[in-house]
Design brief:
Blueprint (H helix, E strand, L loop, with lengths): L11 H53 L2 E6 L5 E2 L2 E5 L9 E6 L2 E6 L5 E2 L7 E9 L8 E8 L2 E8 L3
Antiparallel strand pairs: 1-3, 2-7, 3-4, 4-5, 5-6, 7-8, 8-9
Length: 161
């Protein structure tokens, strides 16, 4: 009767194959995790940029609601500064002036110091306000253009008086 040999454990070749398979699987998991984290960070940066741009647009359109007069730019003209007289502001807070200085969107209320509206993480460029004259059937409007870190933002606010 032949004696059966029972082998316990793994041979060196089997061990190397299992280590290679484990390394391959672990590399795939790590690469996938890195990709997910990297894309999450890029998405977060895009969202922050969008939120910042929308905040700036809302702040300017707020100033244009309840408007009495647009002082700068003149009707039919455009420029990098918007100065408006807004109804309902306390004495000394008119006019509201919006401008860009060193990549920062600023607002000034009357003769008070300027306030930075944009955060330090973004750079504002190409700020333009276009005062569109009213025509029969259409009210006057202000077209607002600017770029944040190279991404364009634009809106038109119609002036109801």
């Amino acid at each position: 009767m032949a004696k059966q040999r029972h082998q316990f454990g793994f041979s060196l070749l089997e061990t190397l194959i299992y280590i290679a398979l484990f390394s391959f699987i672990l590399s795939g998991i790590l690469a996938g995790t890195f990709y997910m984290l990297d894309s999450t960070e890029r998405t977060r940066a895009k969202l922050l940029l969008e939120e910042e741009g929308n905040f700036l647009l809302r702040k300017i359109t707020w100033a244009l609601s309840g408007l009495d007069t647009i002082q700068v730019p003149a009707s039919g003209n455009s420029g990098p500064i918007l100065t408006v007289i807004r109804v309902g502001l306390p004495l000394g807070e008119n006019p509201l002036t919006f401008s860009e200085n060193g990549g920062v969107l600023q607002m000034q209320r009357g003769s008070n110091p300027t306030i930075s509206l944009s955060s330090s993480g973004v750079s504002v460029s190409g700020l333009t306000f276009e005062h569109i004259a009213s025509v029969v059937g259409k009210p006057a409007a202000v077209k607002i253009n600017f770029q944040l870190n190279g991404k364009p933002f634009e809106t038109i606010k119609y002036i109801r008086q």
